[in-house]
Inverse folding.
């Protein structure tokens, strides 16, 4: 899962600890979500999105980043 969570949190000037407290989880959970090691429940994703004044769709994606094709790579 790809996440814009870290970038959005930083844009708002929040620490991992502040976000964790605001949504009712541990700082380690926020770290795991930001690192892509843990997928939040729907309820947690909604709380995170509300806290970060974003939509779930803006913060989380199941899409893998595009893989460069041979033409896209530099020689």
């Amino acid at each position: 899962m790809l996440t814009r969570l870290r970038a959005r949190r930083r844009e708002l000037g929040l620490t991992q600890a502040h976000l964790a407290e605001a949504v009712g989880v541990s700082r380690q959970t926020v770290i795991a979500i930001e690192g892509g090691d843990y997928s939040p429940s729907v309820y947690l994703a909604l709380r995170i999105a509300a806290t970060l004044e974003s939509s779930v769709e803006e913060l989380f994606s199941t899409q893998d980043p595009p893989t460069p094709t041979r033409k896209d790579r530099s020689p």
Observations:
- The chain has one domain: 2-61.
